[in-house]
């Protein structure tokens, strides 16, 4: 009996052992599979979120760059039109001078006929003044004043180009108004906007602000390439979208605060009746009181996200099938995969931390550590290719006085607002670096030496126009600037910095609120 019992006990124990091991392995594998799938799902969600953020950022850059390019086009066209009008005025005076030998009466008759009978000159402002009678004898637009001097004072400031001359006992004036030039530019810009097409139902439109305080009829729609019937429509800040938000109010508040903004609202798609969220960038062109805007529908991002999500889930499904077939092997693979995922996550976290270390925590400008690398790279590029960026050193005048009077927290706010203002003037390729305290370095790639002080004065004017809220009041600031560029004899970037610092010191010594350059 004892022998029989032992023979039966061995297989029973082995079966129990195998079953136990199998159960344990199955439980471990199941737990690992669940853990693995859970981890994959989380990583997938993170990947999708990061993809969404990256695409969103690209779209924002596209909107902003497109609007800024249009504003640059406006500036170039205004400059070109003004130059053309100056040449036009010179040519016109040359034609009139051909009749200078006529008698006074004949010359006056010629002058009037020249502008009356020639439709090519119907946009020209013309005045003829009789010096003996001290009155205007030809003034089709009723612009003359009580005296010739008053007449000129009242009209010259409105002209883009003009000429004044005398003949006999008469004085003559003709010119082209700035308003006419601007109207020509506006018409050309409208044609450009209406003739440009973008993917994804995107387009540019223009509103003109009539009242920066907002309210009813605060603005009028000037250009709309898709819905031209809307041109001339008055806008109000109490207009709501389909969700009850007030996009025009949001836009006006952002324009009044920063001159530009990104914002979302819901709008009907051009094709179909679908209401979709729309990301929009708006920027003020103050000379025309134009708010130039461009938007893109956010649901256009979804196909990219769905594709990313589908690829991620397909991968998870294949891995799940493999886990079911090879439980024990999957246990090892799962542990390895989890370890790998942790490493990937660590690398991403490390890169994120390194990215944050590149920024100054207060002003969000580049840190000194990051700036040192950028300056080193710029100097290396200069030595290799000759590309010589502008090196700017600037600081806030009397910054210590601000800290002493209002406190360090208010001084910090001044630096934050100053950096924001500078970033709005800089290109995305330029660098602004907090070098220490209120001292900043700016790297201006591609800047020509002849334009350095012009750009420096632009920075100075922008800083001087700032009004920073501090302790229930608004304060203004001024800045001093020093420019320099690399020299062939330089051995590293610090020598250019020393020259920029010397130029900054010169700006301080000569009264602050100015820019100097030492090459």
Structure description:
It is a single chain. The chain is extended, with a radius of gyration of 35 Å. It has 519 residues and is α+β, with helices and mostly antiparallel strands. α1 (2-97) runs antiparallel to α6 (302-325) and α6 runs antiparallel to α7 (327-357). 53% of the residues lie in helices and 20% in strands. The model is unreliable at 1-8 (pLDDT under 50). The termini are far apart. The strands form 4 sheets. It has a 6-stranded antiparallel sheet. The protein is built from 12 helices and 17 strands.
Termini separation comes to 110 Å
What does the radius of gyration come to? 35 Å
H/E topology pattern: HHEEHEEHEEEHEEEHHHEHHEEHEEEHE
Strand content: 15-25%
The multimeric state of the shown protein is single chain
Query: Tell me, what's the shape?
Result: extended
Give a count of the beta strands, DSSP E runs of length 2 or more: 17
Helix-strand layout with pairing:
Elements lengths: L1 H96 L6 H13 L8 E6 L4 E4 L9 H8 L3 E9 L2 E8 H18 L7 E7 L9 E5 L10 E2 L11 H12 L1 E9 L6 E11 L4 E8 L4 H24 L1 H31 L10 H18 L4 E7 L2 H8 L1 H18 L5 E6 L2 E6 L7 H13 L3 E3 L2 E3 L3 E6 L9 H16 L5 E3 L2
Parallel strand pairs: 16-17
Antiparallel strand pairs: 1-2, 1-4, 3-4, 5-6, 5-10, 6-7, 8-9, 9-10, 11-13, 11-16, 12-13, 14-15
Helix pairs in contact: 1-4, 1-6, 1-7, 6-7, 9-10
């Amino acid at each position: 009996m004892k022998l029989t019992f032992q023979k039966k006990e061995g297989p029973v124990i082995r079966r129990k052992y195998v079953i136990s091991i199998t159960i344990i392995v199955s439980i471990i594998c199941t737990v690992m599979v669940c853990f693995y799938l859970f981890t994959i799902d989380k990583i997938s969600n993170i990947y999708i979120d990061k993809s969404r953020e990256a695409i969103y950022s690209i779209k924002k850059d596209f909107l902003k760059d497109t609007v800024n390019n249009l504003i640059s086009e406006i500036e170039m066209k205004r400059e070109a039109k003004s130059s053309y009008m100056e040449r036009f005025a010179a040519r016109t005076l040359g034609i009139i001078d051909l009749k200078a030998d006529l008698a006074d009466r004949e010359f006056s008759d010629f002058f009037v006929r020249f502008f009356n009978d020639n439709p090519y000159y119907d946009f020209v402002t013309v005045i003829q003044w009789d010096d003996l009678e001290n009155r205007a004898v030809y003034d089709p637009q009723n612009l003359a004043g009580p005296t010739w001097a008053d007449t000129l004072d009242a009209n010259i400031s409105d002209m883009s180009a003009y000429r004044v001359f005398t003949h006999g006992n008469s004085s003559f004036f003709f010119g082209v108004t700035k308003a006419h030039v601007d109207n020509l530019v506006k018409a050309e810009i409208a044609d450009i906007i209406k003739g440009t097409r973008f993917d994804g139902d995107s387009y540019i439109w223009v509103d003109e602000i009539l009242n920066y305080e907002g309210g009813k009829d605060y603005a009028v729609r000037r250009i709309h390439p898709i819905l031209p019937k809307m041109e001339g429509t008055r806008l109000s800040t109490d207009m709501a979208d389909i969700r009850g938000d007030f996009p025009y109010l949001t836009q006006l508040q952002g324009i009044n605060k920063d001159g530009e903004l990104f914002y979302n609202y819901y709008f009907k798609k051009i094709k179909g009746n679908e209401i979709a969220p729309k990301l929009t960038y708006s920027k003020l062109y103050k000379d025309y009181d134009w708010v130039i805007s461009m938007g893109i529908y956010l649901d256009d991002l979804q196909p990219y996200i769905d594709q990313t999500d589908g690829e991620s889930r397909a991968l998870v499904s294949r891995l799940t099938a493999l886990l079911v077939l090879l439980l024990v092997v999957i246990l090892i693979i799962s542990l390895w995969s989890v370890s790998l995922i942790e490493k990937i996550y660590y690398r991403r976290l490390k890169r994120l931390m390194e990215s944050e270390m590149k920024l100054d925590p207060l002003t969000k400008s580049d840190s000194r550590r990051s700036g040192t690398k950028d300056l080193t790279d710029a100097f290396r590029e200069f030595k290799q290719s000759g590309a010589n960026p502008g090196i700017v050193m600037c600081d806030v005048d009397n910054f210590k006085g601000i800290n002493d009077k209002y406190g360090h927290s208010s001084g910090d706010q001044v630096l934050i607002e100053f950096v924001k203002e500078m970033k709005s003037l800089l290109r995305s390729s330029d660098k602004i670096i907090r070098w220490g305290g209120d001292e900043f370095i700016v790297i201006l790639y591609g800047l020509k030496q002849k334009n350095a002080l012009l750009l420096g004065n632009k920075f100075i004017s922008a800083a001087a126009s700032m009004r920073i809220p501090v302790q229930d009041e608004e304060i203004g600031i001024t800045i001093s600037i020093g420019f320099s560029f690399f020299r062939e004899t330089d051995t590293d970037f610090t020598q250019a910095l020393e020259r920029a610092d010397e130029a900054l010191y010169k700006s301080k010594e000569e009264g602050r609120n100015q820019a100097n350059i030492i090459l």
